Amino acid sequence: MSEANGRPQGSLAGVRVLDLTQFEAGPSCTEVLAWLGAEVVKVENPNGGDPGRLTPGADADRASPYFLLFNANKKSITLNLKTPRGLEIAKEMASRADVFIENFAPGAIERLGLGYDVVHGLNPGIVYAQVKGFGEGSPYQNYLAFDMIAQACGGVMSITGDPAGPPVKPGATLGDTGTGMLLAISILAALFRRKDTGVGERLDVAMQDAMLHYIRVAFSVTERSGAPAPRAGAKLLSGGNAPCGIFPCAPGGANDFIYVYTSRANRAHWHRLLRVIGREELIGDPRYEEVAARVENEAEVDEMIANWTRQRDKNEAMRLMGEAGIPAGAVRDTKELREDPDFLRRGMMQVVDHPANGPFTMPGWPVRHDGETLPIEPAPLLGQHNTEVLEQWLGMNAAQVAALREEGVL
Amino acid sequence: MSEANGRPQGSLAGVRVLDLTQFEAGPSCTEVLAWLGAEVVKVENPNGGDPGRLTPGADADRASPYFLLFNANKKSITLNLKTPRGLEIAKEMASRADVFIENFAPGAIERLGLGYDVVHGLNPGIVYAQVKGFGEGSPYQNYLAFDMIAQACGGVMSITGDPAGPPVKPGATLGDTGTGMLLAISILAALFRRKDTGVGERLDVAMQDAMLHYIRVAFSVTERSGAPAPRAGAKLLSGGNAPCGIFPCAPGGANDFIYVYTSRANRAHWHRLLRVIGREELIGDPRYEEVAARVENEAEVDEMIANWTRQRDKNEAMRLMGEAGIPAGAVRDTKELREDPDFLRRGMMQVVDHPANGPFTMPGWPVRHDGETLPIEPAPLLGQHNTEVLEQWLGMNAAQVAALREEGVL
């Protein structure tokens, strides 16, 4: 990363992304392209913009925190795509873009007049990317989908939760951001190839299909058993290991727990654990020495660990176990993470000063480049970059932009 | 994608990846690079190789299904990095690679003599990438981590599960594959930049830090409330919407459920739902017409939906709701997904013929490129490509390779 003319120059400097996405699956994808230095121009309808702006926490003046989290470092222009002039401007911009991306409901982009054939016809070098709920050719291809629908249909819920209970919805938005990340990978590969060939590519991903990628350990279970992968509560889906689980800590709050694991691949973990919990006398005890024995006596094993963790704060327990070389992790909640000075110091959480919302704490891109976190710029106001973008991309002047605004095109 | 000389030419054709990763976080990252056409050479210790080969389902002749899932399309060479000659060969290969990647325990790569300073000194243009459990500078930087430790410490478990119950471990391996995908994005961006500049980059990501990226909706809740995001069971973390949840279907098996959602942004969803469940008479009824009223009467709303879903197979219920334009998704288990002819027909599941394991069904890369799924090649046998790679990368001949094998270097 370097700076030139006061603007950060990221890895993707010079790449232009025409971004017609909304909510999360598409915006999470284009946000990482923006963090990496691409110029991402978010095209929004003049009447409120991305509906993600209006999710809980929004008011007349401020976009929702949700919107701010998924749209940092982007530019926003308004464009009424249902007017002939608005559509024409979108096409002119598509002719000058490197990437076009959308995640409307099935069929909507074609109805707008910006389907693949049209855009590719205007710009054969474009990388044209789409997110849908279900794949083309799937029996569900015309169905609506949201994050949790993908997590249901894509197997994620079936392997989450207690063995005796119903399927559970994970809190992470794997259906949305999980899909967006996979599309970002394919876009970057297409841009890499295009640098030599000049040839564009059509990319499409379905949220249901993307879920399979994240549950492959569960497929390894089914490969072996021929049966559906079970719900295993806090344990491993593959079974056959102990101890591994979530143990209660003092003082007993909603997230006062610690995950403790011992790898099958390293028998030292169990011995280290016995030392930390003050049960050295059990080192070598045949009831617990081998993994198979510990699985047989799992209730006793778990109880001796819980007896120790219940008396300790989760962070203290993690420190003692971690220092001793035992894989263990305190369950952290979002308030603890947001306020953790470690994350702020390392730049994993940054405080961004948003012109309407004020100071706003948010996680940025977690991969460091040359030891540095990527800079975060606040999410744009609706139409904030109308003049700048139409001048730079299409050579318009301020009077032309003003006229478009009066005509209701912007 | 095109074919030349019978070999598929992917977007990353010509990119050489020296892959020292093991288990899942690293291998998931290098596998997608391989799917996209990079030449990924997996460097394994001659004594068993990647410990992921030995996870459940492995025997003397066959690697585990887990290994096959995360190592498709790669080449394998064996190299004893603890011999001087083995280390020397690794350095020679690093000099000729575009990407170097490892995910050993903290400090191990430096002890092996292949830390960033060494490799960058040999090859200033290299993209040097690392996955660790905790970030450099974190109080936990020397601690061991596995998928579930990252999901505990990174907030994912705190927002998964029933409001009245303990944190729940999601079944998806977000700590591993979720982290690997973010690193792949940064690697591709670095390769893109390097094409013009020739300059390499150092990339590192911590699994704990990566988790924050997938739970940003939960941070939006904390931003508004100042409190930890709750566990919300099957509901939205942000609350304030009904109906949304997991409903039971006939005949009542472990995964006979359907997720039903109605978007706040589209009031038509509720009316469509009333029609499908045969309660048209409630359209316009003030007890249910507005979202706020439905939230107030959520138990009644949920019961009227469950009365309908309980009498229907989940797939039939999904079909009726999906055709009517209601976001709804049957909970699918891994056996259903693996055997679904739709996934096989669309290439989202492919049957790969592995030389040792035989025919093996696995999901491939879910993003389609120009309408095609990327081809899957079976994961390599241990050391399968010793001769080929040492000849092509280092110009050795078969006799030299045989001598190295005799010396115990390979």
What is the element layout, followed by pairings?
The structure is a homodimer of 410-residue chains.
Chain A: E1 2-4, E2 7-9, E3 16-20, H1 25-35, E4 39-44, H2 65-70, E5 75-78, H3 84-96, E6 99-102, H4 108-112, H5 116-122, E7 127-132, H6 147-153, H7 174-197, E8 201-206, H8 207-214, H9 216-225, E9 244-248, E10 257-261, H10 268-276, H11 291-296, H12 298-309, H13 314-323, E11 328-330, H14 334-339, H15 341-345, E12 349-354, E13 358-363, E14 368-369, H16 386-394, H17 398-406
Parallel strand pairs in A: 3-4, 3-6, 4-5, 6-7, 7-8
Antiparallel strand pairs in A: 1-2, 9-10, 10-11, 12-13
Helix pairs in contact in A: 1-7, 6-8, 7-8
